Amino acid sequence: QRQRGKTGARPAQAPVADDSAYAVWTRYDRVRNDGKEQYLEQYDRLLRQYPRITKEFVAGRSHEGREIIAIKVTRNARNTKDGKRPAVLYNAQQHAREWLAGETCRRTLEYFVSSYGDNARVTRLVDSRELWFMCVSNPDGHEYTFTPGNRLWRKNMADNDGDGVLGEPGDGVDPNRNFATNWGLDNEGSSDDPSSETYRGPGPHFEP
Q: How many angstroms separate the Cα of 185 from the Cα of each of 30, 94, 204?
């Protein structure tokens, strides 16, 4: 779902993400020569290493222009029409600070592709199903949680007030509250206040 509203460029004063303090947790963006495999770097490697069973799908672009990527895992993935086989979606990190969810997704992805051909059950599933892995649904927010003082940021990086400064208290939409089904039903499970961590956005299914 591509964003239908305004798109803001990354502001010059945005802090730079840094994961050097962490041994396990990694960023979304590629970082050259840092000794770590970031999410996009893992995707790149798996697509090269397992071309018969992996395919990249770009679901859209974030507010800051990052590709929101899913990896399809199935037999003959690149030459088999999407949706031809029964499918399951492994979707994580709609909330930026939930690093463990993304890590679980990426390790599950690694398990399926590396076990294919050696593990009979995995091979049977990959041959007969489509396994879709979107391990970081909110890449802007994920990157922002690696900047100083923002580890617990939850929402995306929507510039709600349009002032060109991202990450202010009144900015961001909770992507998990932006689905069209029952959007705006009440203010218990979500909020119409942009400063709330459960702010549902200006309209249903509006966010990238």
A: 39, 20, 11
Rounded Cα distance, 102 and 133, in Å: 10
pLDDT at 1: 36
Q: What is the pLDDT of residue 15?
A: 75
Cβ distance 168 to 161 under 8 Å? yes
pLDDT of residue 16: 87
Alpha-carbon gap, residue 108 to 171, rounded angstroms: 32
3-25 burial, b for 16+ CB within 10 Å, e for fewer?
eebeebeeeeebeebebeeeeee
CA distance 111 to 122: 9
| DSSP assignment string, the chain | ----S--PPPPTTPPPP--TT-SS---SS--TTSSS--HHHHHHHHHHH-TTTEEEEEEEE-TTS-EEEEEEESTTTTTS-TTSS-EEEEE--SSTT-HHHHHHHHHHHHHHHHHTTTSHHHHHHHHHSEEEEE--S-HHHHHHTTSTT-TT--S----TT-SS--S-TT----GGG--STTTTS-SSSSBS-TTSTTB--SSTT---
Residues of the chain with pLDDT under 70: 1-14
pTM of the predicted structure, to 2 decimals: 0.91
